Amino acid sequence: MAITLTLQFKILTPLFLGGAIQKEPDLRPPEFKGLLRFWYRAISPDYYEKEKEFFGSTRKDGDSKEETIGQSPFLLRAKKDFLETMSWNDVNLRRFNQRHGRQTRNGLTYLGYPFGLRGGQRDAFKPGGAFELRLIILRDQEKKRLRQAVAAACWLMAHVGGAGSRHRRGFGSLALTDWQCQEGEEIFPELKVLPLLSNSSTTREWQEGFEKALGRFRRWFGPFDSKEVNNKFVHPHLGPAFRWRLSEHGFAEWEEAMNVTGRMLQDFRLRMQPDYQDVKAHLMGAARGGGPLRNAPCRVTFGLPLEFRFSSQTATFMPYDEQEKTTRERQGSLLFLRLASIGGMLHPLYLRLDGSVPGLDNPVAVQHHGRPLLQPKRNSLDDFMNHVTKEA
Q1: Is 252:346 a contact under the CB 8 Å cutoff?
Q2: Average pLDDT of the residues in 49-76
Q3: 357 and 210 in contact (C-beta within 8 Å)?
Q4: Helix (H/G/I), strand (E/B), else coil: 127
């Protein structure tokens, strides 16, 4: 017998989730299924051995064609009655500007900068809208570990992650307002033991509920330890280095909340002037036959690629593959910024996941320059979280 889990979501910040036509928003089930896989990996220490059991797997045959050898035991469907859309140009960004010219500071523009670039204009689902995800578990529904994996992944996607473009920087923040098993709560008891934090009326209640859920996950999946992970770039997870901070100050408007969240990061990074000067000196030195840059810029720890733009040149820092002796496209940030809905207000939430820190755990190189750089002199990612702990 199949069982059906329904999840009700409210959109807190613009959801830039593209469909077949990228500029038009669409609720794409494959996108959400990929996010659930990501968050299962984040909470399960032995995900490498277990995830194919819950999400399926693929392999390549002799003709290099992909062949599915393990089908996921659940289907995912998205349902929306009507969702209003908006464009980035609809947002009054200028009201948050401080200073002028190159000194302008604007946290909302900072977090959403790709949406304002030429060719980057896209529509989004407007905050305040609601939609439903439906998970239909086709088999093995009696297995506790499958129910735990599904419940944990859904809960984390809703409370730690988000969906769509720039969801690590606050866009696509969601609130899980309700979830139910249509066949009865006794069929899916895991739902009852995980609190829906959007029902919290105070930040203290939210924080206590968050810690309760994390403790439940550790009991379900076991703690992360220092054992080796099979892949070189350790997947973001909720291990010992995981940290989070919820702001006590809430905002009625998503724009204001996102501006404050973005300014926290923008102001911190603008203090890191030596990065800018060191990279500029490196490019000038390279033009004369040699560059002085030995260490990767400290801000690579926030994620890659990292681009420095100057009037005549651009320097792009990327992950370096020591085996292939070349750069890779990207290494996603371990820093997640989002908003949490508490008592009708929106509170900035800052999360630092455990995992491989760019530049420290994996080498970094300047694109087209061919050699890896030494480690950055500081871990700016953790410096930022220390700063947030004091300020938020």
Answers
A1: yes
A2: 65
A3: no
A4: coil
**Helical ranges in the chain per DSSP H:** 29-43, 47-55, 107-111, 144-159, 203-221, 254-270, 273-287, 380-391
**Residue 309 corresponds to which tokens in the numbers above?**
């733009």
Please tell me the predicted confidence (pLDDT) of residue 160.
96
Over residues 311-317, mean pLDDT: 82
End-to-end distance of the chain based on CA atoms, in angstroms?
A: 48
CA distance 337 to 160: 9
User: Residue type for 101, please?
Assistant: G
Please give the Cα distance from 199 to 202 (Å, whole number). Answer: 9
Sorted by sequence, the CB contacts under 8 Å of residue 95 that are 6+ apart come out as: none
SS3 337: strand
Give DSSP secondary structure letters for 167-219: TTBTTT-EEEEEEEETT-GGG-GGGTTS--GGG-SSHHHHHHHHHHHHHHHHH
10-22: average pLDDT: 84
DSSP letters, 249-282, are --BSSHHHHHHHHHHHHHHHHHT-HHHHHHHHHH
Kindly report the number of other CB atoms within 10 A of residue 34's CB atom.
Answer: 12
Residue scoring higher pLDDT (193 or 72): 193
Q: What phi and psi, each to the nearest 5 degrees, are found at residue 321?
A: -90, 110
